[in-house]
Each structure stands twice: as structure tokens, then as C-alpha cells.
Amino acid sequence: MTSISVTVHDEDPAIADRLTRQLRAELLALDIDDATFDTEGHEEVSGAKGLDPQAVTTIIVALAGSPVLKQLGRVLQDFVNRDRHREITVKRGKDTITIKGTPDEGTRDLVEKFFDAED
User: Fold this and answer.
1) Residue 2 confidence (pLDDT)
2) I need a surface site. Which of 69, 71, 84, 101 has the fewest CB within 10 A?
3) Rounded CA separation 44/22 (Å)
4) What is the rounded average pLDDT of the residues 3-26?
5) Whole-angstrom distance, CA of residue 56 vs CA of residue 61
């Protein structure tokens, strides 16, 4: 099983929270095993009804095969391309890539290679 970490970046924590939840909903529509919020190292806020917004900017995606990995790469790139200010960081094992909105062809090729790589 492959585990991918996806972090959504935004200066406004409320926007980052909203975008992360939106992305998670999109990822759950894929044939993945799970997509959970990474709350490691974050404490619950006393009296709050939910998680600390700072904790909800990273999603851990668990998936079983490389076809789904390629599909995940396309979904993440599409998500970022919707707004030229969007930025995410994806970690897979020791490898990390940052994807920013409206990438050029070279960046698209790098992203594609990142998600084509075998475990």
C-alpha cells in the first residue's frame, strides 16, 4: 500500500481549511483506500467543535496501486490549476514535489513523472 501526504498551502487558515476539505471530498471519489486528515502533532482546541484549522491542511491518502496513483496525480494537478494562486505539497516516501497553479509544460512533466514512479 502506498501512502501519499498532500498539504494545501494558503496564507489564510480558513481558506486552507476549506480547500483541504474540498480536495479530500474529491479524493474520496477516487478508487483509494482512505483519505484522512493528518492531525499528528496537533492538539484539539479546548471547547472547539472540530479540529484545529492548522491541523486540517494535510491529507494522508492511502492507495493500493499505480493506476490509482496516476489518477491521483491528475486530480491534484487539476485541483491546483483551477486557481493560479493555489499551491500544494505532495510527499511520497522520501520524495516531495510542490505543485503551483497554472504550471508550465516542464512542471507538468515533472508532476507526471512523480506520479508515474514505482514504489
Assistant:
1) 86
2) 84
3) 21
4) 94
5) 13
pTM, whole model, 2 decimals? 0.84
Q: Which three cell numbers stand for residue 99?
A: 505543485
Question: Mutual orientation of helices 13-28 and 66-81 as an angle, nearest 10°?
Answer: 140
- Of all helices (H) and strands (E), which one includes residue 91? strand 87-92
pLDDT score for 119 = 52
Three cell numbers, residue 18: 476549506
Residue 34 has pLDDT above 80, yes or no: yes
Bridge-partner residues for 11, per DSSP?
A: none
Tell me the chain's radius of gyration from C-alpha atoms: 14
The pairing of beta strand 87-92 with beta strand 2-9: antiparallel
Residue 77 has which C-alpha cell? 494537478
